[in-house]
Amino acid sequence: MEAVPRMPMIWLDLKEAGEFAFNGAVKKSAVTVPRDFEGCSTLRKYFGQLHYLQSRIPMGAEQEAAVPIAWTEIFSGKTVTHEDIKYEQACILYNLGALHSMLGAMDKRVSEECAAGAFTYLRDHFPHSYSVDMSHQILNLNINLMLGQAQECLLEKSMLDNRKSFLVARISAQVVDYYKEACRALENSETASLLGKIQKDWKKLVQMKIYYFAAVAHLHMGKQAEEQQKFGERVIYFQSALDKLNEAIKLAKGQPETVQEALRFTMDVIGGKYNSAKKDNDFIYHETVPALDTLQAVKGAPLVKALPVNPTDPAVTGPDIFAKLVPMAAHEASSLYSEEKAKLLRDVMAKIEAKNEVLDQFMDSMQLDPDTVDNLDMYSHIPPVLMEKCAALSVRPDTVRNLVQSMQALSGVFTDVEASLKEIKDLLEEDEAQERKLQELLGKSLPGPRTSPPALAEVSKECSKYLEVHEKASFTNTELHKAMNLHISNLRLLSGPLEQVRATLPVPALSEDDRQVLQNLKRVLAKVQEMREQRAALEQQLRDMIQKDDITTSLVTADRSEMKKLFEEQLKKYDQIKVYLEQNLAAQENVLKALTDANVKYAAVRKALAEVEHKWNTTVQTLVASYEAYEDLMKKSQEGKDFYTDLEGKAAKLLEKARAACRAADTARQQLLEK
């Protein structure tokens, strides 16, 4: 792209601190930080020092030195209090991620990877029960939003640096992948209820970005095809880019002017590319344009990552101000054990995410929604939009009659005009015939060639003009009558009993075998959902176990030489849940095979249902269009009547003039014959 239009970024609000029995000056400097990178540095230092503090003093949940800590929950504004120093750490870490997201949304467009890192560390190392704004679902949403925006920034730079088209396409495709993950989270009913009113705004923006960056990806795939002189592929990629951009434009209603400008600019680029490519292929290259689904899908290239958070990095946190309180050996050993737990979680999560990715891609390719797989309920009632039109016509019983009368009135005046013009034309033709007859009779005895009387010439000229106007208007009149005839039958239907309207709408005719195929498909889809839910529950159970697993007291008395053995013994507590997870992951292959078989049998039923649904939608749209066309038809009918009434008056006057002129000409001929 010749320039790189920018899309707005989503950023998160910071949490507000409440009560915490800690040194006032320290607390104030940590919770009222400036909104800049210095503020991020302050939060990191405070977070690190809290980490040193909690490893030495028992300030955790239900421990001897625990004190109340209060913070405001972002979405509800309620104050949430816990007697657990880890809650203070979690809130500071959340604010670190939120502040990085705020800085990332500014012009410099950096910092999203830091935000993703903060939220990832918060998700993996702290309980999710502190408050809803730090729940597992919300943190996953934040992580995918930040990674998507970081990849979006990388895409901007790649386009400005004129990187290779294929690389730019892959980077853009990965932006789409991250935003799709975010969109899945936003569509989750639980997440939506937590977010409240901002869920709709975020969802609209993310959905629009999905189509926009999909368009950018296919634009650059088209450019790559152009570089490879694959002119047929170039056309289909540019066409796909145009289609996706049009979808983005539809979803961008209500977005700020900067978004509209970016979309208009991109439309100019993609539209120009498509028109040029199509023209060149049509007139020069004549290459076959392949179907888009026959081309290899663009695989995303994830070139950004969540930057890790290290609470014990002295370069970030500064010197340990609590170093003399307890032996560091126990703290170091606890950190090593925490890393072993984190490694175990990473290994398990890598397997889960790999299986989830396969499952998501499989389900996306199937395009099967368990809730609407048969969609039979929609045929059991008249849709609200049609009921609304029927109700409106029920209080306007004269609708059809008014339209018919208007048509009849228009036809009447049209016929009058046509009759007047025909009579004028007949008079003129009769006069010409009489004139030719006179010339044949008298021949050379006439003193010279005869010219048409001025009055008749004027009538002939006016008649030609009116005939031309009438002929042009006649076509419009004919089309108007066709439209009226089309819509009148629909309006009669909408004005009649609802049973007739319902009978007009098509319904699927499924055999008993078809219904069994549907039930089997639903059963397998339910099995897929059960597998998903069980997997998520086991994952959460594992995270909770890891979160609560604190062996610090054991480490204080343990011999350093026995540390490795102690770790191995402690980690055995996770073996059983790992077995359950492995069984769940292993079952996926069989479940997907069963779903594939069920979907193959469902193909014919699906096609039949799709055809009926298409007919149903077309019928509804046609009936609604007839209702909406009524006012326009009445207006055009009145305009036509007014036009022909005016023309009829002019034609009537011209007819009288023609009769008088023809009588005068006839008298003149009689006088000439008498001489």
From TrEMBL:
Coiled coil: 414-444, 521-548
Pfam families: ALIX_LYPXL_bnd, BRO1
This protein's record includes keyword Coiled coil: yes
InterPro entries associated with the record: ALIX_V_dom, BRO1_dom, BRO1_sf
GO biological process per UniProt: early endosome to late endosome transport; endocytic recycling; protein transport to vacuole involved in ubiquitin-dependent protein catabolic process via the multivesicular body sorting pathway
PROSITE patterns according to UniProt: BRO1 (PS51180)
Gene3D superfamilies cross-referenced by the UniProt entry: alix/aip1 in complex with the ypdl late domain (1.20.120.560), alix/aip1 like domains (1.25.40.280)
Entry keyword set: Coiled coil, Cytoplasm, Endosome
Database matches in SMART domains: BRO1
Domain BRO1 stretches: 27-359
GO CC annotation: endosome
Domain of life: Eukaryota
Entry keyword annotation includes Lipid biosynthesis: no
Compartments reported by the entry: Cytoplasm; Endosome
Name the UniProt record assigns to this protein: PTN23 phosphatase
Organism: Crypturellus undulatus
Gene name per UniProt: Ptpn23
